Amino acid sequence: MSAKFEPITGRYMHLDLFGRPHRIYVEEAGEGTPLLCLHTAGSDGRQYRGLMNDARVTSKHRVIAFDMPWHGKSSPPAGWHDEEYQLTSVQYTTMVLEISAALELDRPILIGCSIGGRIALHLALEHPEIFRAIIGLQAGAHVDPYYDLNFLHRSDVHGGEVCGAIVSGLVGPDAPDKERWETLWHYMQGGPGVFKGDLYFYKLDGDIRGRVAQIDTRRCPLFLLSGEYDYSCTPEETLAVANSIPGCEVTIMKGLGHFPMSEDPQAFLAHLLPVLEKIGRR
Amino acid sequence: MIETLQQRVNADQGLVRRGRYLTTTFLLEVGHASWLISIFEGRIVQVASGPFVMPSSSFALRASEEEWQKFWSRRPPPGSNDLMALIKRRALKAEGNLQIFMSHLRYFKEALAKLRTEGAAA
């Protein structure tokens, strides 16, 4: 059997964020309009492997995904061993803008899922001029905690096992087993307390219910796509956001769950490609 | 039907292996009916049917019969496909020492999904 390489390349970027040096892993594939991809809480950029390996996307787009600090192959900053990781809206916004600027991206399309979908709403509101278009996957304005988050980080519960098990039902029923378990594996690989720290943003700090209707889609087009089987950010919650923003386009994706780009890339691309085409025609 | 849980779980070697550090008894309530399910090192050793006068268990899972029937259907609808989905909708109450439940969450999700109509995905 001969070896086969994917068209994805990865690099480590050194960048100061929040006044501290960071080592951040960045992957990319393709050429054209930059498409900056934000992964979900407790996971990493591998979630976008389907997009990066699909010529229908990469023939026209430079697809870029970075692992957030503490995630995937990005390190936590020096001193992390004495800290509790907690992601805030301000940090997340800064991170996306600084990394995009460091990569010298010219008005990228932004696509983000879950916490990435939430920060996409923040960015659509606060920094619409930076982006060509914004695509929010599984994007809602707020999610109430529905289990005791402390179980995600305590020494008598295995972090990898519980993080994988917590999210397993968020994968849609039709996802191919290979992609379903790849998606869950990323969760099982997360560092101690990282998923919980991300959910601080998702369930507490990042609530944007009071401001989401102020998003002006004339300044930056906004597309929301949500999977039918997501009970974390339900289709109803995405529809509520979409209905409160004039000009926002929304798609509910039948059979898909909370991780569309990773759990079933082919099914997801059937929904994403028309959106990318529409953005390309603008 | 609940009694078949013992055979269905114990026949799945992978599930039993993943539960090898799990020894407990939990209470399952389906509407007004209840069962005490005893697990020893990942194998279900007893499914005792209520009613009970003084049921003793590490934790309890309680939902209406209608909610469990949806969960156990061949293709559960959105919101009924997973224990956490039921908990999110406040349709399932998990009470007691939930460290045991959460530290073996995959086990309990997959074990209870064994009661789905034959041929359904776990």
Query: What best-fitting shape of chain A do the alpha-carbon axes yield?
Result: globular
Overall pLDDT metric of chain B? 96
- Tell me the series of helices and strands of chain A, N- to C-terminal: EEEHHEHEHEHHHEHEHH
Number of strands of chain A: 8
Named CATH architecture of chain B: 2-Layer Sandwich
Radius of gyration of chain A using CA atoms only = 17 Å
Global geometry of chain B: globular
State the oligomer: heterodimer
For the termini of chain B, the CA-CA separation is 16 Å
Mean pLDDT across every amino acid position of chain A: 97
CATH fold naming of chain A: Rossmann fold
Overall SS class of chain B:
alpha+beta
CATH top level of chain B is Alpha Beta
Trace the largest sheet of chain A across and list its strands: 1-2-4-3-5-6-7-8
Number of strands of chain B: 5
User: In percent, how much strand structure appears in the residues of chain B?
Assistant: 25-35%
Instruction: Output the radius of gyration of chain B.
Output: 13 Å
Question: Spans of chain A with pLDDT under 50 lasting ≥5 residues?
Answer: none
Helicity of chain A, as a percent range: 25-40%
Structure description:
The complex is a heterodimer of chains A (282) and B (122). With 282 residues, chain A is an alpha/beta fold. Chain A has a single domain (9-281), classed as Alpha/Beta hydrolase fold, catalytic domain (Rossmann fold). Helices cover 35% and strands 18% of the residues of chain A. Chain A contains 10 helices and 8 strands. Chain A has an 8-stranded mixed β-sheet, sandwiched between helices. In chain A, strand 5 (109-113), helix 4 and strand 6 form a beta-alpha-beta unit. In chain A, helix 5 (159-167) packs across helix 6 (177-188). Chain A is globular and about 50 Å long. The N and C termini of chain A lie far apart (45 Å). The model of chain A has no long low-confidence stretch (mean pLDDT 97). By secondary structure, chain B is an alpha+beta fold. Chain B has a single domain (2-113), classed as 2-Layer Sandwich (Nonspecific Lipid-transfer Protein, Chain A). Chain B is built from 6 helices and 5 strands; from the N terminus they run ααββββααβαα. Chain B has helices at 5-10, 13-18, 65-71, 83-88, 98-103, 105-113, and strands at 24-30, 33-40, 43-49, 59-63, 92-96. In chain B, strands 3-2-1-4-5 form a 5-stranded mixed β-sheet. In chain B, strand 1 (24-30) and strand 2 form a beta hairpin. The longest helix of chain B has 9 residues, at 105-113. The relative contact order of chain B is 0.20. Chain A binds chain B through residues 146-148, 151, 156-158, 161-162, 164-166, 168-170, 173, 228-232, 234-235, and chain B through 75-76, 78-79, 81-85, 87-89, 98-99, 102-103, 105-106, 109, 121.
